[in-house]
UniProtKB/TrEMBL annotation:
Residue numbers spanned by region Disordered: 61-82
Start-end of Basic residues biased regions: 61-78
UniProt protein name: Uncharacterized protein
Lineage: Eukaryota, Sar, Stramenopiles, Ochrophyta, Bacillariophyta
Source taxon at top rank: Eukaryota
Length: 273
């Protein structure tokens, strides 16, 4: 089995090769099954046959040398607000994997609970989804949990530069930046909301504004129940996928009617099968 750090490194390297998360997760599974824990080990001879030809080409393509980035050097982020297009679609179903739906819903919840700007909330949603993916991978035996140093929360002398957001049974750490709050990713980096929005746009396409609008309406309808019921809402709306390892990174159908039929919670919540 791969260690948690090896999987995190693989994910980062696959994304740098141009893979979307929905493609990277099953690719990691195929590589780990073949006992390949680094892209440096990969050759045309040991390439897992379950990986599509187009992805194989990306993995074997040599990266252009541009000089190694300085350790700890922060990437400059855009400070402009994310431009959300008007709603132009009203789909009944959307074929997608669960990660972008979780990311977007947590962003909506964080936006409302903590009065965050949407750009700030997007980074919280991304960090939350990444933690869930890591925990799920461990529970499925795709990689093993390693002993890691406990991440420290804000120190007493940190002032207002650091913060922790507690929502949906997780604590997400964040740093204050000139552009606002930015949640901290697995590599201790400050997450770029524009990159997250770009990724969500690729996955949801023209349906992204529709889903976001319905989720915001749901969060408003939840009122004071939002904090306690947010995770149950996600379980209710998330795409259906196979159980176990077959569902790792798999696509399922999001029934968009569910985005609007959960709240108010004065009635018993819908049963989850």
């Amino acid at each position: 089995m791969a260690s948690q750090q090896q999987v995190a490194d693989l994910l980062k390297n696959l994304i740098s090769k141009g893979l979307e998360t929905q493609d990277a997760l099953p690719t990691i599974k195929a590589l780990v099954t073949a006992k390949i824990f680094s892209l440096d080990q990969l050759t045309p001879d040991n390439m897992p046959s379950s990986i599509s030809k187009s992805i194989q080409a990306k993995l074997l393509k040599k990266s252009r040398k541009k000089g190694a980035p300085s350790p700890g050097k922060k990437k400059k982020q855009k400070t402009t607000p994310i431009c959300i297009p008007p709603v132009s679609t009203a789909p009944q179903t959307i074929l997608i994997n669960r990660s972008p739906i979780l990311t977007l819903w947590v962003a909506v919840v964080a936006e409302r609970l903590f009065s965050l700007k949407f750009e700030e909330a997007m980074t919280v949603g991304s960090a939350y989804a990444a933690e869930c993916a890591r925990a799920k991978g461990t529970s499925l035996g795709i990689y093993t949990e390693t002993t890691q140093e406990k991440k420290d929360g804000p120190s007493e002398d940190a002032g207002d530069a650091k913060r922790q957001f507690l929502l949906m049974n997780q604590t997400i750490r964040a740093n204050q930046t000139p552009a606002g709050w930015r949640a901290i990713g697995n590599k201790e980096e400050e997450i770029d909301p524009h990159q997250i929005w770009k990724s969500l746009t690729k996955k949801l396409g023209d349906d992204l504004p529709f889903v976001l609008e319905r989720m915001r309406e749901a969060a408003e309808a939840a009122g004071e129940d939002l904090d306690a019921s947010a995770y149950n809402y996600y379980v209710h709306v998330r795409p259906g996928i196979p159980h176990g390892t077959k569902g790792w990174g798999a696509h399922g159908h999001l029934q968009t009617s569910k985005l609007s039929d959960f709240y108010p919670v004065s009635k018993p919540p819908p049963s989850v099968k």
